[in-house]
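Technical appendix A lists one of the benchmark inputs used to test multi-chain prediction within the project. The record comprises two sequence entries:
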Amino acid sequence: MRGDAEAANLLRPRTPAEAVRLFEEHKDALPIAGGTDLMVAWNAGALAGRTFLDLSPLRA
Amino acid sequence: MRIRFKVNGKPRSYSGPGMKRLLDVLREDLSLPGTKEGCGEGECGACTVLLDGDAVASCLVPVAQVAGRRVATVESLGRPDRLGPLQEAFLAEGAAQCGICTPGMLMTASAYLRRGGRADDGAIRRELAGNLCRCTGYQHIVRAVQRAARRGSPTARRRPAKQKARRAPVRRAGSRA
């Protein structure tokens, strides 16, 4: 079973500075950019309950 | 989390967990069940949709990442009563067996054709390398994409009846070029 999306904490910083600050506050957060590998683990249920730090909004 | 994005040219909004897979949002929240789940781990390509024109596996995209972007699903290629040229080509070549891989094949092929892809056997096979057909119907699928490439844009609608009737029944010379 994949991770429960309802229970996942997803952080979406808008600036690099905000990303650094959030990462400081959530040291256990898993950074995600494209997600090709991370989403496979997520779909397999290996990352249930984790916090994710989505870096994709920082793309130029 | 509330996000807005475009699906098949229409503005849509979604409220719910940002980590929900785009695949599930399309099927469950937006009632677009054309996109199929195959392996659910990004290997088979059945769930392929276009994201800002690029073919992506929708099982590997958390919906939060499509905010403000354009998604195109197989439903954008035509309707049951008015198929698009690429879909007609798949029908004509018998390029669907069980059908699970077909929406993904169509979307990958449509991205290829929109980029001006030619009816080149090797190029089409390379393009479709990320889409698996477990019925192994690859020959027919490649032929269908070649047929569509010779006919033009995958988004162009079937011509109006008047023009269609005028269409020459014989293949034009040099149409394989």
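The longest strand of chain A covers residues 51-54. The interface with chain B takes residues 2-3, 5-6, 8, 10, 12, 32, 35-36, 39-40, 42-44, 52, 54, 56-57 of chain A (CB under 8 Å). Comparable benchmark entries are summarised in Table A2.
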